[in-house]
Amino acid sequence: MWSAQDVARDQVRRQASGLEVAAVTENVAEAGARERETAEQLRRGGSFSEFQTDPERLAAIWAAKHVEWRRVRDVMVQAGWGAYEPERDTEGSTWAQDREDRRGGALAARAAFEARWREEADELWLSAAPGRLIRAVADRAGLVPAQVLAQLAERVVVSEDGTVSVPPFMPSR
User: Fold this and answer.
1) Does residue 167 contact residue 156 with C-beta atoms inside 8 Å?
2) pLDDT tens-digit profile of 19-55?
3) Cβ contacts of residue 39 below 8 Å, gap of 6+?
4) Which string of b and e fits 42-61 if b means at least 16 CB within 10 Å?
């Protein structure tokens, strides 16, 4: 779901918090070295480690981290900051808010999907005519079809010869 740039920006923003320019510059150099190493490993082929990380994704993340560490260093130097404060970084804060908005949207979409799935799991599959009849009764009573079916089931009477009937009743909440 998250691009290499999203991952890099989030990690650098958290890791840079409170660091001075010298420490950020060290991270720029480290990210540059990692970018070169992962790009070379990608060209040679093979795995980066026993954890089987996707080599293309790892190379893209290190390239994006290198860009982001340089951006943070440049912002600090231009603004004259002694230490990096994420909340003062307008561009970084905009990205962080956008990422949080997308995360919230994804969580809401997932929750809605799960709710629909639970409703469908509770639903009985009926042929067209009985299904329409149950839905119409449910709509009139302000219920969902499963509630009408539950009330029907509660009232089922089975005679000694196996005949099934339901005495007349008014569905209610």
Assistant:
1) no
2) 999 999 999 999 999 999 999 988 887 655 555 568 8
3) 59, 63
4) eeeeeeeeeeeeebeebbbb
